[in-house]
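Hey team,

Filing this mostly as a record. A colleague (T.K.) asked me to run one chain through the structure pipeline before their review meeting, and I want the input and output archived in the tracker in case anyone asks later how it was produced. No errors, nothing strange. Just documentation.

Input sequence:
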Amino acid sequence: MATTAPPGPEDRLDSWKEIAGYLKRGVRTVQRWEQASGLPVHRLDLDRQSSVFAYKTELDAWWESRRQSAFEEVTAAPVSMSRRRWPLWTTVGVVLVMGFGFSLTRWTSAHAGFGVFNPIPLTSDLGSETNPTFSPDGNQVAYAWNGPSQNSWNVYVKMVGSDSPLRLTNAPEPSDAPSWSPDGRYIAFLRFFRQPRKCQILLIPPIGGQERVVAEGDFDSPLAWSPDNRWLVTSAPLTAKGPAGLVAIDVATGERHWLTKPPRENWDDFDPAVAPSGRSIVFARDLGSTSELYRLALTADFTADGEPLPLTAHNRWTGMPAFTPNGKAVVYSSGIKDDITSLWVLPLDSGDGPRLLFRSDSSYYQPALSRLRNRLAFSVGRIFRVDTWRLDVTPDFKPAGAPVRLISSTHTDYNAQYSPDGKRIVFHSTRSGASEIWMSDADGSNAVRLTNFNAPITGSPRWSPDGQWIVFDSNKEGQFEVYRMHSDGGNPERLTNNPATDGVASYSHDGRSIYFMSNRSGTNQVWKMDADGRNPRQITRKGGYLAFESADGHWLYYSAADGDSPLMRVPVDGGAETQVLPRVFEFGFCVTPKGILFARGGGIEYLDSGSGKISPFFQPSGQMTVGLSLSPDQRHVLFPQRESSGSDLMLVENFPDNP
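Output structure:
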């Protein structure tokens, strides 16, 4: 076997500066590559960051391996030509490639000249950079960044091609969602206050300076300017507890008028984009379990001209539209919530359906298009998935040590539920590339897929008390329905068959009935049916979503709505509906024999039913998401936690006028 001579002194680079210069990148970029992507850097003293060296031959080999890996990733996966509001700074998805690894990514279009693009990093700092917005000339980008310490959201501006951004805001409260005015004079943004809970819309010059408050309210959606610089459009609740509609705010006076009013209480309108002509708005409408794009025509005085019309039918989480400069199409994001989102393009007046622009195994979202220079910017989540963790519990119901990661993959694994005998776990996962139901042993091993629906969303699995059945929901047929299947596999059986949305089901303690959410009465309520799907009847009247029966079979505990909402209880066959807790997080509660374990404020708390006392139970290190489960012996708690290292902004030059 031939041997290779060790690198000589002339091959050695003796500082971060020399390594960065050799790779033609900034020092912070190569330090990030070393931490995240295995850049071969050696240390003389492991405790001294500056005492590093590298060999040119090793750097060359690493670079070539990353380039080849990116090329193989592109050529191995052909791109298809098929056709809750998202938090403003939340990344969604799983990304395992970084920096220049995007340089060989395939884009598709039926139009000539729309072939392979070369997305390049627009930002690459530690933390999360989100919500890009171009200056009118397309030479600068404003965006939100939580800083190198990842603890303070502020608005920044940088020249395209520059390494050093200018920080515009410096308040202790988070500043986010910048939007550059069409005349270039201001950048509008949101600032969030926790005590009291409110949001401000502010303006700041793009070179920094005095801020001006435009409005205060319960805003929670990106901002969109009208072409004449007079109006800002965002989303706000129509009433204190009602749905959110789009509102137009006069920048000079703060005057407001509503543009949309969702027809159902559990629907919300958000993510507005105003057409370059100013005569229409494209936005996302949260339909309870999915969201789609809608289009609203506008009059000359910027009021609604009729009712909005649906544009898409992805049956997924769809939103974040951005108009092309000529106004003939929108680029937007669509995919699986908390996991995979891709970029799409929709021609608006040609009659053509949406086309996949940029296939993603991770999250590509928040597209922004420059009016000049043909540039596209978008956010990409670097690493984002959900893992299921197990927390052991002492006999007196206290946490026993640190939690352990139990179910994990490069995708999302959450909403895990123990079987009645505690030997198995059923959970929702996207590890196969689709949203499906999976099962594993209690230690997380031997995971197998139970469903093969290949639907936009299949989830919310729950066991029958005898462990023989699993009930779940899916929008395989275009809307959500309730299904059940044998826990050892087999063909799923559809239990609901109604034009309404039906989902998030659970069994009664005796297994004879199934509770589920349905909007067949006009609003989301808890319903009850026989275990075979017959005899559906309404249980709640004041709103209901996820429901679990008490161990004694006397009470039904349920969340009042999707997302964060009060926890209620009602007799199992209906009756007086009373509040148990003022707020629980999404699907994060489970009924124990002696109380309620629930998620709130980023942590897990416990309500003792006997004393009525609420006490802290456990504080996860990361952000929790959907699901909470207690083992039958009350010795283990399963909880989901997002695993994230932020997001970057990417840039595409020479983006076509008519994609």
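Quick notes for T.K.: The first strand starts at residue 12 and ends at 13. The radius of gyration is 26 Å.
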